[in-house]
Amino acid sequence: MATPAPVLTGSLDSAGHPTIKINVYGLSEQFQKEFEAMIDTGFTGFLMMPLTESFPLALTLYGTSSWTLAGGTLQPKLLAFGTVLLEGVHTHGVILLEPNASRPLLGMEFLRESNKALVVSKAGCFLIDEGYMNALAQQHAQQTQQPTAVPANKPPQNQP
Amino acid sequence: MIAKLGEDIYRQKYQSEYEAHHLGKFVAINVRNQQATLGESPYEALEQAKAADPQGLFHLIRVGFSSAFQITHAYEYGNSGSGPDWIFR
After folding, report:
1. Among the four A97, A106, B11, B78, which has the fewest Cβ within 10 Å?
2. How many domains does chain B have?
3. d(Cα A50, Cα A24) in Å, to the nearest integer?
């Protein structure tokens, strides 16, 4: 394989959710703090942060967004600009500030922006570079397209 | 309240046109001047809107969706941490 596999490993929490350690900051890296974030592919956003945890990070407030609760009620949420630092890579995005959250939640927008694919196993979780995943997929496609040579005098298998 | 102003401005000035032509895109409504900025992502819409008016106050909407973001989990994000009240659509 020409492309090295840039694999990051996370773990599973007690409830079986994939989690990974990230650093988050706003205006400057000097405000960064490490968190154990849950990765949730059912969350379409970039990152949701507990409101109280976000104060020391110097996030820049953008404004609001409305969320629709299951009962149809609109509830305003604060939005901020911030950066996630993961293994030396800085990814910028819109962070939702949630008063009721107990820990950070990474969503699909983060995976898209950081070009990572999420793989979950019994042992833990892996954030794999999209380029590596694409190379694997191409290799697999090439292998499955090549016809397998069968000797002419060999009888077919699975026959009585 | 920024959220209510933003929702009202969007509904009155942009909703019908945007839902016909920009379904699924994100729009940042500047409640200071009622300008709308479209983007492919929340970050793109808000960054462009902020570049146009650094002092702006923005409300983010996803065109054609009831919420800009969706979450299908409840777990500890619920008000009580016990029910599906926080399953957004």
Report:
1. B11
2. 1
3. 12
Give the one of A71, A79, A98 whose C-beta lies nearest to B60's C-beta: A79
A69 reaches B (C-beta below 8 A): yes
Disruptive mutation site among B7, B31, B41, B60 for chain A (greatest number of A CBs within 10 Å): B60
The pTM score is 0.82
DSSP A49-100: EEHHHHGGGTPEEEEEEEEE-TTS-EEEEEEEEEEEEETTEEEEEEEEEETT
| Cβ A84 vs Cβ A93: under 8 Å | yes
Q: Residue B19 corresponds to which amino acid?
A: E
Task: Sketch out chain A's domains with CATH numbers.
Answer: 7-145 (2.40.70.10)
Task: List per-residue pLDDT tens for chain A, 160 residues long.
Answer: 455 566 768 999 888 889 999 999 999 999 999 999 999 998 999 999 999 999 999 999 999 998 877 677 778 999 999 999 998 999 999 999 999 888 999 999 999 999 998 989 888 898 988 888 888 889 999 888 876 665 656 555 555 5
Tokens of A56: 């020391």
Contact between B89 and A107 using a beta-carbon 8 Å cutoff? no
Q: How far is B54 from chain A (nearest CA, A)?
A: 10
Instruction: Establish whether this prediction's ipTM goes over 0.90.
Output: no
